[in-house]
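Long-time lurker. I teach an intro course on protein structure, and each term I like to show students one example going from raw sequence to a predicted 3D structure in token notation. This year I'd like something fresh instead of my usual example. Would anyone be willing to generate the tokens for the chain below so I can use it in lecture? Attribution to the forum is fine with me.
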Amino acid sequence: MSSNSDLSTRFSVGSAADSYKEMIEAERSLLHERAKSALSLGIPAEEKKFLEDAIVALSGLDQLVEIIDKNLNGVNRTVALSNLEKTIRAARVIGSHAIKNPVSGKLQTKGAASVQNSRSEHLDFLVEKHVKIELQKHPSLSANAIMNRILKPVNEELTKIPRPLTAVEKKMERERMRQVATLINRRDKGKLEVGEFDADIEKLKPLEPKEKEAKPDAIRRRVTKILAKIRKKAA
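-- Reply from a regular --
Happy to contribute to a lecture. Here you go:
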């Protein structure tokens, strides 16, 4: 006859195993989402084929978990699921940070340049817009006077523009996505009530970083250039 202590231990072990299964499903969902996102980047056909094959191979995780569930019990089952979850997570981290991929490197370089160009273009547009507004009201204003007038409104608009995530923010967002996937799995299995799920999801809002304010010198240079161009054209 089993004691209460034995029953408690079995429940604890079973609960831990179920938690590891949820984390495995969350990691698989995260990998699947990343692979699908990568396929939309316009990558070379060979890289695309590798990713498509990898997505199909992810189904092997389900089969492996089934084998563990069928052939192992108690602590052995929990340890096996724990090691599987750690291995998947380690592979994801290594794949994200330790492998030099010429395609991803090219995309990162292109992305970094695009981010800088995008910010510069936003600032150019905003400065020119506000310079023209001030000139309509005060045609004879100097570049310095215009800069002082538009500094605040330009930065107010600039800081409302979303910017791409930094490396640290991307890491935080990946962790958020993993937590969201775990919550979804728990909800789908009936382990979370609708109200609990909604409350937990509300705490996991995505990051929405905005552009930083432009320095006065950066705005002043643009004002001088734009003003000279406008007055030369009007002469």
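Some talking points for your students: DSSP finds nine helices and no strands in the chain. Residues 1-11, 102-115 have pLDDT under 50 and may be disordered.
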